[in-house]
Amino acid sequence: MTPAEQSLKAAEICRLAPVVPVLVIDDLAHAAPLARALVAGGLPALEVTLRTSCALDAIRAMSEVPGGVVGAGTLLTPADVKAAKAAGATFGVSPGATDRIIAACEDEGLPLLPGAATASEIMALLEKGFTVQKFFPAEQAGGAAYLKSIGSPIPQVKFCPTGGISLKIAPDYLALKNILCVGGSWVAPKDAMLRGDWAAITKLAAEAAALPRA
Ligand code: 3PG
User: Fold this and answer.
1) Structural domain contains residue 113
2) Following DSSP, what letter does each residue of 56-104 receive, concatenated?
3) Antiparallel, parallel or unpaired: β 19-23 and 182-184
4) Is residue 214 assigned to a domain?
5) What does the record give as the reaction this protein catalyses (predicted)?
6) What spacing in Å lies between the alpha carbon of 24 and ligand 1's midpoint?
7) Which residues contact 207 (CB under 8 A, 6 or more apart)?
8) What count of Cα atoms within 13 Å lies in the side-chain half-sphere of residue 105?
9) 127: domain range?
10) pTM of structure
11) What is the pLDDT of residues 159-198, one digit of tens each?
12) What is the pLDDT of residues 13-55, one digit of tens each?
């Protein structure tokens, strides 16, 4: 799968909803109810970060939930890409991008949303064919104002910014023409997961799903 084909798929996934939940799952028992709660609230695209020991099993469990489109985040190595694909991930997200990760996603046929934070990184990914990229860490790297500026010389690259984004500031990003969606963990707070308060998570998801986009 070429980078251009991967970006087409990534764009399709990013357009499903204004927010992609970024999920850190510590307990496998949370995976399916969490996915159901988020999908019920209107957020079908779900990024499960490979930062916990049960993340791959969580991807497997969440992939069974009707309406969910489950991807793997925090891809750092070709082995992560292989494992994510084997677990059923339909897309991958990496905080940055390396030639090895990109080659692995081409080989595995896993659509990648590769991370970039500077004009040169964005241009290097564009040269390879990635027209849809993750902007990370969004708030720390310059926020919505930075992405607006990048959109002048490089309008053909569209972004999913993540890192430090909340319901309150998401509209600043979503108002920009070069933003397809934002990513964030605020829709799945740890305390709500520990309490099993899936209704609270559905409510947060519904608020996020109702955010207007440009
Ligand atoms: C991440 O990979 O941690 C994401 O960017 C989520 O960031 P957040 O927790 O600040 O929303």
Assistant:
1) yes
2) HHHHHHHHTSTT-EEEEE---SHHHHHHHHHHT-S-EE-SS--HHHHHH
3) parallel
4) no
5) 2-dehydro-3-deoxy-6-phospho-D-gluconate = D-glyceraldehyde 3-phosphate + pyruvate
6) 9
7) 167
8) 32
9) 3-209
10) 0.97
11) 999 999 999 999 999 999 999 999 999 999 999 999 999 9
12) 999 999 999 999 999 999 999 999 999 999 999 999 999 999 9
Catalytic residue among 9, 85, 134, 158: 134
CA 192 to chain centre: 21
* Backbone torsions φ then ψ of 18, nearest 5 degrees: -70, -20
Distance CA(36)–CA(180), nearest Å, equals: 23
Q: How far apart are CA 179 and CA 26, in angstroms?
A: 30
Give 151-172 as a DSSP string. Answer: TTT-TT-EEEEBSS--TTTHHH
| Nearest Cα to Cα of residue 167 among 179, 156, 155, 182 | 182
Q: Whose CA is nearest to atom 11 of ligand 1?
A: 184
Looking up residue 176, the CATH number of its domain turns out to be 3.20.20.70
Whether the bond between 212 and the residue before it is cis, its omega within 30 degrees of 0, is no
Q: How many residues does the chain have?
A: 214
Tell me if residue 139 is catalytic.
no
Task: Answer yes or no: is 142 within a domain.
Answer: yes
